[in-house]
UniProtKB/TrEMBL annotation:
Domain called Tc1-like transposase DDE: residue spans: 190-326
Alphabetized InterPro entries for the sequence: Homeodomain-like_sf, RNaseH-like_sf, RNaseH_sf, Tc1-like_DDE_dom, Transpos_IS630-like
Protein's name in the database: Putative transposase
Domain of life: Bacteria
Length: 360
């Protein structure tokens, strides 16, 4: 009985594949959907004689024999076009639509955001009177609207938003005044300055792995560090950097003197944050450097912050054993960053508009 059953399961197909091997090969190369590829693969194997039974096809494709039988019958009845057509159940009427959907979209435009899809579910119920399943909310918000959890930019509770808009609004007038007052016969430039700490503690970052595979990153916790002082020019991509062991007024004064020499005859309006040593009474700003200060607790106004993020991304997962090793990797990373890249990273609209307005 067992031998007879095996014989029945393995009997060859009675099917004629009308396409040539060349046609099937071409179709396989151009197939983009997995469902189409496995059906075309079945036809190719049958046409080439590599397999001739349901059992063999089922084993090769990882499908059950009932599925193979259904596909073969569909090919006999409807040809290749019918075989490759995958029918889907008709979609459900969207559970969030019309004015409710517009209200949700508007709320998602707020930078304060939602903490979770569950919070959105609660908001829909309390604000719009919609009682929806979590799965439905996720489908609409994540899949249809493309709204995902993101790491927010930190913002100090001490920040005054009106001071940011005031700074942006007044910058064109300030730069035009400085251009008229100090820039006659000389080149007046706009730079942005800041400092950042770099050390042997590993800079972590995201890693890509296969679905279901948790990435693992090797971390070291050494505390040795140094500070990188720098300026960038959003308009041209010019930059100037110098390493110092400390973050203090003496190092800052030295940095200003080095920068002043590098600028030569040019005069630079430089945007600083309100760090204590940036405004120290003992500080002596060189004649060709004019400081302006952004509002307190507003790092997002300074485009060099974006440059620091980019630079540190180039040093992620580098477990250097000594500061000298880290300094060499930093040097290599800085050399690889072109002025065009810096301009692309730092050319904030409000700064460029101020410069163009002053020049007109």
């Amino acid at each position: 009985m067992g031998a007879f059953s095996n014989f029945v399961m393995s009997r060859p197909f009675q099917i004629e594949i009308s396409e040539s091997l060349e046609e099937l090969e071409k179709a396989l190369r151009h197939a983009t959907q997995a469902s189409s590829k496995e059906r075309l693969q079945m036809l190719y194997w049958l046409k080439s004689g590599q397999v001739s039974s349901r059992q063999s096809l089922a084993e090769r494709l990882g499908r059950d024999e009932a599925t193979i039988t259904r596909w073969v019958r569909k090919y006999k009845d409807e040809g290749r076009k019918g075989l490759l057509e995958v029918k889907h159940a008709p979609g459900k009427v969207p559970s969030i639509s019309g004015s409710d959907l517009e209200s949700l979209k508007q709320q998602l435009q707020e930078s304060s955001g939602f903490q979770s899809y569950g919070q959105i579910q609660q908001w829909l119920k309390s604000e719009l009177g919609l009682s929806l399943a979590y799965k439905t909310v996720y489908e609409v918000v994540h899949n249809r609207l493309g709204a995902k959890l993101k790491v927010p930019r930190p913002q100090s509770t001490k920040q005054h938003p009106e001071s940011l808009s005031h700074f942006k609004k007044k910058l064109p007038l300030a730069f035009k005044f400085l251009q008229e007052e100090f820039g006659e016969g000389k080149r007046l430039r706009y730079l942005c300055q800041d400092e950042t700490r770099l050390g042997l503690k590993t800079i972590a970052g995201r890693l890509i792995t296969a679905k279901g595979v948790k990435p693992v990153g090797l971390i070291q916790w050494q505390r040795e560090n140094f500070y990188l002082y720098g300026v960038v020019e959003p308009l041209s991509g010019y930059s100037f950097f110098y390493e110092f062991p400390y973050l203090n007024g003496d190092c800052f004064q030295h940095f200003l003197e080095l920068l002043s020499a590098d600028l030569g005859d040019d005069i630079a309006v430089i945007q600083f944050d309100q760090g204590a040593f940036h405004k120290a009474k003992a500080l002596d700003y060189p004649d060709n450097i004019i400081p302006i200060f952004q509002p307190p607790h507003s790092p997002e106004l300074n485009p060099i912050e974006r440059f620091w993020e980019f630079l540190k991304s180039k040093l992620q997962w580098e477990n250097c054993k000594t500061l000298a090793q880290l300094q060499q990797k930093l040097t290599d990373a800085l050399k690889a960053i072109t002025p065009e890249m810096i301009a692309s990273l730092t050319s904030y609209d409000f700064i460029l508009e101020a410069l163009f307005s002053a020049a007109s």
